DNA sequence: GTTAAATAAGACTAAAAAAGTCTGGTTTGT
DNA sequence: ACAAACCAGACTTTTTTAGTCTTATTTAAC
């Protein structure tokens, strides 16, 4: 129950990887797939979607790759989800412009479901991608500040 | 994205219907299906699950039916979801006792995902079924921001 | 210029999950 | 005895998700 799309997972994996790079340094899909074992095509398409939505920038051709364009602190998980899989709706009949269900007028839970939908949207809106990706950095810290001193 | 299980929908439909009855009055599956056009078998099994989890009581035989047993104010949406579809986990590898994914050690987002999972669980825990079913008994205004003000 | 490495994008296929149906029970009031 | 209702598992269909294939296009390096 409540699985997130693999697309969102690939997006998070890629963003976390890219976040750890020097500013301006490009990342290739190949690099990500080798590092985490994810599907090339699938990951590739997710990155392309993020480019289209202005979250990433891409350099084509040899020596090309991807770059984070926006400040991840200002990108919510809702933004990311909408970028790669589309708008959130807990039931079909709440999709804007989509088909009506066959219950239509007699449905007794449409209002509660619309309410729930709104709550969920607000929930995801309240989580920043940057914050989420920073969770538990202590445990697997790549660039720990205090590492500079000793050890 | 983020569709709720039909099972949860049927559960909500049924509970809302039963909630409006006199105390002690039984409800049959047939009655619910006729009223809202949902599948008999599917609805039936959802109600049976709620009986097993102690949320409903059933009277078998002719003149039988279902009855709400617990106070819906004290039943969270999380409880309901877990009853009818099982525990929430945003990715497979967070299912307790389930398989590991093939990324295992190299996965860079397991901590963020575990964090997200916990947030979602808490989110659903914070919504009472009773409250949700009471939303907008007047009229449904799907995405109107000022809807909660109270017309 | 040619080539190799990279992104871009759509169509197609396979796998998994969800939803629904069928069958055969059991219980109980009339 | 019978009909109306719950109970429960197996099965099938449909839908969604995930992955693959193919064919561009761009650009650095040789």
What can you see in these coordinates?
- Two copies of one chain form a homodimer.
- Chain A has 151 residues and is mainly alpha-helical.
- Chain A is built from six helices and two strands, in the order αααββααα.
- In chain A, β1 (56-59) and β2 form a beta hairpin.
- The first copy, chain A, is elongated and about 60 Å long.
- Residues 139-151 of chain A have low confidence and may be disordered.
- Chains A and B meet through α1 and α5 of A and α1 and α5 of B.
- The first copy, chain A, binds a DNA duplex (30 and 30 nucleotides) through α3.
- SSE succession of chain A: HHHEEHHH
Please summarize the sheet with the most strands of chain A: 2 strands, antiparallel
Give the chain pair forming the largest contact, with residue counts. Answer: A-B, 50 and 49 residues
The overall average pLDDT of chain A, rounded, is 88
The level of helicity of chain A is 40-55%
Oligomer: homodimer
Low-confidence stretches of chain A: 139-151
Rg of chain A computed from alpha carbons, rounded to a whole number of angstroms: 19 Å
The count of DSSP E runs of length 2 or more, i.e. the number of strands of chain A, is 2
Work out the helix count of chain A.
Answer: 6
Q: How far apart are the termini of chain A? A: 44 Å
Strand order of the largest sheet of chain A: 1-2
SSE-based structural type of chain A: mainly alpha
Overall outline of chain A:
elongated
Measured by DSSP, the beta-strand proportion of chain A falls in 5-15%
